[in-house]
Amino acid sequence: MKRNVLIYGFVTGLIFSAHMVVKVGKLYSNPGYQAKVVIGYTAMVVMFSLVYFGIRNYRDKHLQGTISFGRAFKMGCLIALVGSSLYVLVWVGYYYLFVPDYLDVYTEHVLKNSSPSRLAARTQEMALFRERYKHPLFVVLITYYEVLPVGLVVAFISSLILKTRPANNQKQSV
Questions:
Q1: Nearest to 78 by CA among 56, 59, 43, 54
Q2: Rounded Cα–Cα distance for residues 3 and 86 (Å)
Q3: Per-residue confidence of the chain (174 residues) as pLDDT tens digits?
Q4: What is the spatial distance between Cα 16 and Cα 46, in angstroms, rounded to a whole number?
Q5: How far apart are CA 11 and CA 137, in angstroms?
Q6: Rounded Cα–Cα distance for residues 87 and 101 (Å)
């Protein structure tokens, strides 16, 4: 199980990290870039689909086609955690080494796309966010918060889909 968790988690993290670098690059090169939240979360679900394939691979190749919900969910959570952790590590390094002015660019982007009625509130929110983002622990926690919950939901759904019982435990018709 450990090998599958590491392989599928690492690949998930690499894909997430590459996606993040591309998104940040688009924001820098095109200040008018409009990232759609629905598209972003859909992309996360698609990227986290590797959780499903990791569980299925382990079930089929190592457990003779049977896996309990608990074991599948544990494995899915671990894959999501490894992938999310790699994403967090890459973001922290990328942010501090390559885009330390990211919050300036992001704040400008958010305020430019705010409605006039929400501009004052959004300005205040972004000032508070900028202050909190000065602390590395906050950066790590908010970055996990960005991706890990989606991975846990995908792990839960994948576990429900993939759980199977051994043939001798299934009810037999008389």
A1: 54
A2: 16
A3: 899 999 999 999 999 999 999 888 887 777 666 666 667 778 888 888 999 999 999 999 999 899 999 999 999 999 999 999 999 999 999 999 999 998 888 888 788 878 888 888 999 999 999 999 999 999 999 999 999 999 999 999 999 999 987 766 555 443
A4: 10
A5: 25
A6: 19
